[in-house]
Amino acid sequence: MKRYIIGILLTAAFAFAQDASTDSASSSTGSATVKEPVEQAAPERTPEGYRIIRISTEETKVYKDSVKKAQIEKETKPHDPVPFKFSVGLAASYGLKSIYGKIDLHHYMTDTTSNIATGNDFRFGVAVLIPLIEYNFAIRTGVWFNYTSLMEDRPLLDAPQIKHNNGNFETVGDFRGDISQGRLSIPLLVAMKTMRSPVMFDIGTQFSIPLFDKYEDSSYNDDLIDNGARTALDIALLIGGEVIISRNSSANVFFEFSMNSPYKDNVYFIGISDINLLAIRIGFTYNLI
Question: pLDDT tens digit string along 127-186?
Fold first, then answer.
């Protein structure tokens, strides 16, 4: 009996010792274990065994060529036609204006064309566009008020002069004055352009009626209309162009060349003949209709 009990105890002790050693070994082994990398998926292959390589659409030559072709077509594609449309709008412009004439040999030392006065030119009014051929021709007209302020570059009146021994003349004192003009103008222009272009070329005539034309210097002033020095009607050649910015607006630039003399020769401006006007203006039109 005693022997059986001792044998059972020895067997239990042996079994316990085995379990303890197994736990110790497993814990030490777990702390030292390195996680193995996840196995990569096998490459995709055809039934014949060839490897399949996937390429995105954006990287192919065909795609790049198609994009380039589309860009070229977009750049070379004709613009939509730009028609002339009947319009009535408010217009304004600013420019520079000059009076020039021929200096008379009998009064001055040389007989040459010279600039006499230069200044600012303002105009505003109503502009009307009447289409003739929808995409190519139109009539441009309207009513403008012009205000011009000029400063003399040389005396226009018969200023006192001294004749030197060498024959040269010298003006005594500074008799340069200012000229202020007001005119009511009616232009009549033909506007031309190509079918798809927003840029047009204008040429025509302008008729202007003087409303006032006054001369003033430090000691003298006069109305050139009242004293008969001013002509009753100015006729000028207008040449310029306009670009359509939007359906309701456009910008323009015009040159004005007088076709008749605004002042009668030697009636008021002594020693100056063939007096003419020259102006350049930049303007803007906003269409109400």
Answer: 999 999 999 999 999 999 999 999 877 655 555 454 555 656 555 555 677 889 999 999
What is the maximal distance between C-alpha atoms in the chain? Answer: 170
Long-range contacts of 69-72 (CB under 8 A, 24+ apart): none
In the chain, the domains with their CATH numbers are 87-287 (2.40.160.20)
Q: What are phi and psi of 63, to 5 degrees?
A: -65, -45
User: Which amino acid does the sequence have at 194?
Assistant: T
User: Which residues make beta-bridge pairs with 181?
Assistant: 148, 213
Using the structure block, give the residue that is written with the tokens 């006007």.
Answer: 277
What count of other Cβ atoms lies within 10 Å of the Cβ of residue 236?
Answer: 22
For residue range 68-77, what is the model confidence (pLDDT) as tens digits?
887 877 777 7
Cβ neighbours of residue 110 closer than 8 Å, sequence gap 6 or more: 103
CA atoms within 13 A on the CB side of 258: 19
First to last CA, the chain: 129
Looking up tokens 């070329």 gives 201
CA dist 146 and 233 (Å) reads: 14
Q: 168: which residues sit within 8 A by CB, 6+ positions away? A: 109
For the record, the structure tokens of 108 come out as 């001055």
For residues 263 and 124, what is the distance between their CA atoms, to the nearest angstrom?
24
